[in-house]
Amino acid sequence: xxxxxxxxxxxxxxxxxxxxxxxxxxxxxxxxxxxxxxxxxxxxxxxxxxxxxxxxxxxxxxxxxxxxxxxxxxxxxxxxxxxxxxxxxxxxxxxxxxxxxxxxxxxxxxxxxxxxxxxxxxxxxxxxxxxxxxxxxxxxxxxxxxxxxxxxxxxxxxxxxxxxxxxxxxxxxxxxxxxxxxxxxxxxxxxxxxxxxxxxxxxxxxxxxxxxxxxxxxxxxxxxxxxxxxxxxxxxxxxxxxxxxxxxx
Length: 249
What we know:
11 helices; 4 strands; disordered C terminus; DUF5781
């Protein structure tokens, strides 16, 4: 793997992640890592025929999770190079198939993109968890869910939803994703605090079929065909946005 770090940020996390990733996988195209000064810069990747770009804030690149973030993004790059359906399927196309002719709230439409990203993350983390310990990932999932629950309003029926992160419905889906990931790989026992947090999130959003979402994420096929993956994405979108699951076209 050819990993080239640009900017004045640390290089060790990315080179360490490369060394771990190479124990099982490889990338055919070079990776350009851009460390940004903006602390609010989101970690994101882009891909083309020349290579992969990874942009990350200096704050994230210097954090305790830096190596794990890099591993996760390398896994997305690998899925992209292998043309895995989760990384080639157009989210916009799937949402059109799922929601055509329906009126959907803007916030729910935004959440549908987040759910599609969860499905991509499942397949990326199938790779990262095969080469690296899971302790930091589990701690991250636990911390993120605890923060979301702490931010929820005291009276959910009388508040204005300002951000997707503060919305009890998507928080419940995020909790379902977290449990699905740890159960898919057998990472924690049933008495782990993550289960208590997920239960609280599910209670805050009684309209969300928590167990259904968890089962959908957990049971994603390892190597789906294009139509199989499209149907899975269409079904989970309909489940969330209109609560009327139907067969995909």
